[in-house]
Amino acid sequence: MVFFFTYFQILEYLFGPASSGGAGLSLLRLPVSMLSDFMVSNPAYTYADDFDYSLSSFSIARDTEFFIPVLREALEINPQLRFETQKNHML
């Protein structure tokens, strides 16, 4: 049996309250610069070019296309959602 869900149905299931059939997720871990064991990208996904100590090449442009909008939509579904960074700092 194959099930097809829309993007918004998946978000509702993950972040919606358990009383409404959702999973009620309330904490997400956000790896810094999305470099993690689960990320495969060529070239590597970083916020600044290698050896750019002045950070003149710093940009979050890639995050604004998909990643940040998804987090905002999740927050709309569950305003109590919290984020944990790679260094265990709560946001």
Gist of the model:
With 91 residues, this protein is of the alpha+beta class. It has helices at residues 7-15, 61-77, and strands at 27-30, 82-85.
Features:
single chain, 91 residues, alpha+beta, two-stranded parallel ribbon, 2 helices, 2 strands
Please render the helix and strand layout as text:
Blueprint: H1 7-15, E1 27-30, H2 61-77, E2 82-85
Parallel strand pairs: 1-2
Query: How many distinct folded domains?
Result: 1
Amino-to-carboxy terminus distance: 40 Å
Which shape, going by the Cα principal axes? elongated
The spatial strand order of the largest sheet comes to 1-2
Oligomer: single chain
Radius of gyration: 16 Å
> Could you tell me the number of beta strands?
2
Q: Could you please describe the fold and organization of this structure?
A:
The protein has about 90 residues and is of the alpha+beta class. The protein has one domain (about 5-85). Helix content is about 30%, strand content about 10%. The protein has 2 helices and 2 strands. The chain has helices at about 5-15, 60-75; strands spanning about 25-30, 80-85. A two-stranded parallel ribbon has the order 1-2. α2 links the parallel β1 (about 25-30) and β2. The chain is elongated. The model has no long low-confidence stretch (mean pLDDT about 80).
